[in-house]
């Protein structure tokens, strides 16, 4: 399937006047990925692919050849979330951009190596973002703010699906937005919430300033995706 836009242009073209639906392919039926990609193609704004190294995270998730195959089956942008140790983040950035990622998000906990990976992503023609574990102080995103187009805050423990949203998730989004504003980048950066995305939590996250939610079971478990996405797109942000 041909993409009309790739890399930074694809990310810049995401809608900013409504909530963005980012679909987490970890929550697809992994034995029927092609079928699920066809089902969500008209509904997803962006695909979210979790990559985990079983060191930064409890287990392994996704790999470049699989992402390259997925990239051939969709025209939607691909966001690769690298949940990996600092020593491999640059190599993984290179490999997943080679596989077709439009946007690579690295963890702020990777420090200087994460910043180098962001620069590398740009050099390789991709967009870059930063992600934060739930337990890391929000201020850790600050060194990344001048460089990234996405800030993603985890609302649950890293690398485990099916969890409930932490009470800290909404205050942390508000804090992240204040830092984006202070850095003069509020209009340029998309603020995303990942983990614990449920029917009851999406309005709360939206009201706290989330512009994107990473949908797992809420999307893949819904038999009526058109209705689910119409509901999601209609949620207002707090004044
Ligand atoms: O990374 C995560 C969760 O941390 C998501 O990408 C999962 O896909 C979420 O699945 P659900 O818990 O919403 O079913």
UniProtKB/TrEMBL annotation:
<dbReference type="InterPro" id="IPR011060">
    <property type="entry name" value="RibuloseP-bd_barrel"/>
</dbReference>
<dbReference type="InterPro" id="IPR000056">
    <property type="entry name" value="Ribul_P_3_epim-like"/>
</dbReference>
<protein>
    <submittedName>
        <fullName>Ribulose-phosphate 3-epimerase</fullName>
    </submittedName>
</protein>
<dbReference type="Pfam" id="PF00834">
    <property type="entry name" value="Ribul_P_3_epim"/>
</dbReference>
<keyword id="KW-0413">Isomerase</keyword>
<dbReference type="InterPro" id="IPR013785">
    <property type="entry name" value="Aldolase_TIM"/>
</dbReference>
<keyword id="KW-0479">Metal-binding</keyword>
